[in-house]
Amino acid sequence: MTTSITTSATYTGSFASEKPTSKAVDSGRPRYKVGYLCTPVTADATNTIAIDVYDKWGMIKVLAFRGYVHTTTDSVITEETYIANTFTGTVLTLTVPAGTDDDKRFIVVYGI
Fold this sequence. Notes:
mainly beta, five-stranded antiparallel beta sheet, four-stranded mixed beta sheet, 1 helix, 46% strand
């Protein structure tokens, strides 16, 4: 059964331009944003995570994301591959990949 889970925390990353030595407003290139979210330790395989990236981080387009899982409570972290995902409007929906249940997940979202 697929269950929707609510993130336990979201964080806003830094704003940056493609040329770190210039000011983003003067570079003529779009700034990218990085958002971070953390799920509760109860996240299970096949749970879904829906996040409004515009509401949380001001993103209008998702460029990429990476997912990580705590394989040992708050200790060992390994990367996960999120295959099933959708981006509708400004809502990014991810399905937690098959693996272990009751683990904390950490996801980094890159966008503009």
